[in-house]
Design goal:
With 197 residues, the protein is an all-alpha fold. It has 2 domains: 37 residues, Arc Repressor Mutant, subunit A, CATH 1.10.10.60; 136 residues, Orthogonal Bundle (Tetracycline Repressor, domain 2). The N and C termini lie far apart (65 Å).
Length: 197
């Protein structure tokens, strides 16, 4: 019987999660069965349950891993002495990096979170709300420091996050777009539109 192949840096559970994120992105959480996931990995469905409790657990793991990665990065940047312009540059770069390098996981967290069940759904929404509120605080602080124009902070955050999430379209056209140029262009449009001149 085939086995789940892990590496030195990834566990068998990590492999399952990665494959699940891929299928959830392609078919949607509701339309993906554990049998399909097992077939995609190349093992018997029963062997998956040695490493994961359920399909819902897979979704929870993906969503909260992504949310925790963003929160951790936000905390690390917040603890620096960088200006708010520099902090926003760092967080935008991180969002772009996540979209480009962990596309399936981020896609699932952005689109399939509604399939979470409570208390996980409520916890996820609360974490996302807190994250966005802290970004709004960065805009307000940047305005107070005269770094940013006097703009609506909620609209600014919504616009920036929506634009970065729009990188989903990049995956359909990535052969024609240089990643570094893409990152630089997005920073130019998203960040420097905030700065007070």
């Amino acid at each position: 019987m085939a086995r789940i192949i892990s590496t030195k840096n990834t566990s068998k559970k990590d492999v399952i999660i990665k494959k699940a994120a891929f299928l959830f992105t392609k078919k949607g959480f509701a339309s993906t069965s554990m049998r399909e996931l097992a077939d995609h990995i190349g093992v018997e469905a029963s062997s998956l349950y040695n490493h994961i409790g359920s399909k819902n657990e897979l979704l929870q793991t993906i969503c909260f891993k992504v949310a925790n990665d963003f929160t951790t990065q936000l905390n690390q940047i917040a603890d620096t002495d960088l200006s708010f312009t520099q902090k926003w540059e760092q967080i935008i770069r991180f969002h772009i990096s996540m979209m480009l390098n962990h596309y399936e996981e981020v896609f699932v967290a952005n689109h399939e979170w509604k399939q979470l069940e409570d208390p996980f759904l409520s916890n996820f929404l609360q974490q996302r709300k807190l994250y966005e509120s802290r970004l709004v605080e960065w805009i307000n602080a940047g305005i107070q420091k005269k770094e940013f124009r006097n703009i609506d902070p909620h609209v600014a955050v919504l616009t920036i996050l929506s634009a970065v999430r729009g990188l989903e379209f990049w995956h359909r056209h990535k052969k024609n777009i240089n990643i570094k140029k893409l990152e630089s262009a997005m920073l130019d449009h998203l960040l420097f539109g905030l700065i007070k001149k």
